[in-house]
Amino acid sequence: MHASPEVPALSSPPTPHIEVDRLELSYGGVAAVRGVSFNVLPGEQLTLLGPSGCGKTTTLRAIAGLEQPTAGEIRIDGNTVYSAERGINVRAEKRGLSMVFQSYAIWPHMTVFENVAYGLRVRRTGAAEIADKVHTALDMVQMRSFASRRAAQLSGGQQQRVALARAFVFSPSVLLFDEPLSNLDAKLRADMRIELRELQHRLGITSVYVTHDLEEALAMSDRIVVMRDGLIEQTGTPDEIYRLPNSAFVADFVGSANLIQGRHRPDLDTGASIALETVDGRIVHGMAYGRPVGAELVVSVRTVHLRISTEPPAAAQNVWHGSIRQTVFQGDFTQVHVAWGAQNLVVRCAAMEPLAPGRDVYISVEPRHVVLLGG
Amino acid sequence: MRSATSPISAQQIAGYGVAAVAAILVLYPVFFLFQAALDVGDPQARPPTAYGFDNFNGILQYPRILLNTLTVSVAATVMALAFGFVMAWILTRTNVPGRHLFEQLMAVPYYLTPLLGALAWSLLGAPESGFINQVWRALGGSGHLIDINTAYGIAWVMALFEGSVAFVMIAAVMKSMDPALEEASQVIGAGRLRTMLRITLPLVVPGVLGAAIFVFAEMLGSFAAALVLGLPSRYYVITTAIYQLVQQYPPKIQVAAAMGVSLFAVMFFMLFLYRRIVMAGSYVTITGKAFRPRVTDVGPLRYVLLGVCLLYLLTAVGLPLATLLYASLQKIAVAFPTAGNWTLDNFRVAMTMNAVRSALTNSLLLGFGTATIGVVLMGLLAWLIYRSRLPASGLIEYVVMFPQAVPRLVFAFGLMWAWVVFPIPIYGTLWLLLIAYITVFLPLGVRTIAGVMLQIDKSLEECAQMCGAPWAFRVRTVTIPLLAPGLVAAWLLLFIASIRELGASILLMGPHSKVITPSIVESWFGTSSELTAALALIQTLVVALAMIVLVAVTRRVGAHPVD
Fold this sequence. Notes:
The complex is a heterodimer.
Chain A: E1 18-27, E2 30-40, E3 45-49, H1 56-64, E4 71-76, E5 79-83, E6 88-89, E7 97-100, H2 112-122, H3 127-140, H4 156-168, E8 174-178, H5 186-203, E9 206-211, H6 214-220, E10 223-228, E11 231-236, H7 238-243, H8 248-253, E12 257-264, E13 273-277, E14 283-287, E15 296-302, E16 307-309, E17 319-329, E18 333-340, E19 343-350, E20 360-364, E21 370-372
Parallel strand pairs in A: 3-9, 3-10, 7-8, 8-9
Antiparallel strand pairs in A: 1-2, 1-4, 4-5, 5-6, 10-11, 12-13, 12-15, 13-14, 15-21, 16-20, 17-18, 17-20, 18-19
Helix pairs in contact in A: 2-3, 2-4, 3-4
Chain B: H1 2-5, H2 10-37, H3 54-59, H4 63-93, H5 99-105, H6 108-125, H7 131-138, H8 151-175, H9 179-188, H10 192-221, H11 224-230, H12 238-247, H13 253-281, H14 301-328, H15 345-352, H16 354-386, H17 393-401, H18 408-420, H19 430-440, H20 442-455, H21 458-466, H22 471-500, H23 503-508, H24 516-526, H25 529-559
Helix pairs in contact in B: 2-13, 2-16, 2-18, 4-8, 4-10, 6-8, 6-11, 6-14, 6-25, 8-10, 8-11, 9-10, 10-13, 12-13, 13-18, 14-25, 15-25, 16-17, 16-19, 16-20, 16-22, 20-22, 21-22, 22-25, 24-25
């Protein structure tokens, strides 16, 4: 179905399919991307994640060739498609990529079949082969029976599927996704997420995916690049990004987290764990996960990892007193705001008995969930 | 890989080529206009022997003309705005019956042209022979009831037609106002009047002000009504004065050029001001969303308002058309014809006279030529300005929109002066008219096509690119089919505009390249008003046919969801 990139022999690390090197892009003096480098391996699904305006879509469009960067280099399959230094800028249509747009971009003057067949027609494919490939592609997205419909007669989800079929039907080497699910309603989005992931696995195609939706990124990616203000904040697998955020920004953006600041207490460190003392004298034990430990520390604790109890828990470490400020019922979970010294801690727990404001409680957390943030 | 990375693509060559053509079309005549205005040497010598600003002092020898121009323009602007505002308010904010039909009909006065109105109102309101004054005397009055050959007569006719422009602009502002803004005020407890004064009015003011400036600039440059109604009483405004100075013997080219440049400078400033106001002041239109405006139930008053709407359309459309038809069917146009006075001769003469037939053929030919070449050129320009990433696209937009600020008569003057010395002898031929039409209609065509182009989501084109389609293939398979309704509409608008063109044609047509609208004016002053009425109706019929097709096409655009 697709031209699989050369798989290198022996044990050398696989050659990256896409290499983005010190990419910079500014619009009339305003820097949107300020030096971004990452690689995408063959067959990998990489997600650019970040809030709006972080430069993720711009980066994607630069890879596509729809935006011209101001500096840096982009290589696809080892071929340089953009290089500021060498004055290379291969036009988008020559890069052999394909893209699914946020607005789907289904051509209203063509039928579903014609939409999907477009990329094949560009490549002067024979009529029989076109019919064959288009029908296979439409089958894969369960839209075969809609082949002769016009775009105006399709729902958002159906347009999404057509856009997808159109993007992969001509076996591009790379698929780019620009927030393809953001215009769908929540339920459909969740379904499409799974379908997209399955399809991506079946096609085994390298893809770069842009989203601001954390769940989408966690569910669909092999690797995530978190971006902020035109720079990369952290790169890692979904698990790494979630479990071991390396900055306050990532900790907070990737699911809600409590940040605790304090002074390092090397005297209380035990084996793998480190200890810090907050301004109001509480001792917090956490893990450094190989990150450098300075004198002033910031640790992150996910709201779901904190426990609240009215009886003292059995654990010896990380058990503190606090008092309930407010509880907010949110359906699947209850969000509890606890006064914890000078600070406010947010705890998410499975639906529970409401606790009256002002009530004294115990808060605890396992040290392995207290993650030291990197520099 | 080589071709893909080469710095110059087919797209760029096409882009810069088209931009260069547009720049030459616009700037070449403007250059000659300025040259003539600054020429203080021997009027016979070209190129000029001396330069200076004396010609501009020359303008001051005609203080009456400046005063006349100001009087007519201000009066016409005030009236046009009053018409536009009242109609806009009635049709967007009240529950007057048949609102949607009226809204569509409001475009009709604009398509009837001030020339037609001037001819008809001249038949109606000339002090001696005007039908209204004939009736007045028959009823026992003495002298005349109205005199259309005055400043206010000219302003009245211009306002009737420009009223529909003012309406479109003001109605757009009223429509784009979020009703929630007013509702918010009422929810807080402000009454209707308070809401109107404190919320509605301030929100509408920038739009109305913008319309006022725009209309005023148009009035300064308008020509047809002032020519038809002002010439008999020797009442000149600046455009007719320029025309007179160029046509008389010996011509005063240099002073005329100086007048043209001054008029251009004032209009340019006005339009600049207009853009500033529209961009800065109108918080209302910024969202670009179309809201369903809040409609007030005005109770039985709505039948009165219906009467107002009917009255306006009757005065601006019904009465002029009926008058022309009435006059064209008489041997000698009078208010109370005898049985023997009726005739179809005027139409027969109009259709058989060689001069008329060739003028009509020429006009149709020019209409087809202008529209066809224009759509290609203007389509490429619109794409270049609004879609390509050429670094100079902002500059190109300025050049292309430039003719908007120059009255067509003044532009034609520059063209005439430019092409007289051009080595290829096209002066006095249809080719010069073709060049003139394409140039003066650049803003019209580009804006029409751009309007549709901007509605087309950019990603539709980008997606074709991501599918691997080269530029020419993309344009053919995606851009043009999506633009098709806009291109057809632009073609028809250019065709209509060419058929009706007066200001540029009257200066540029030669004895063997006559076109219809100036011929109508010539016939008015040279032959009979009855024949002229027939000619005007024939021209209107051609325009009306094109209009019907246009409406049918734009209807289809509405049914074709391009988002």
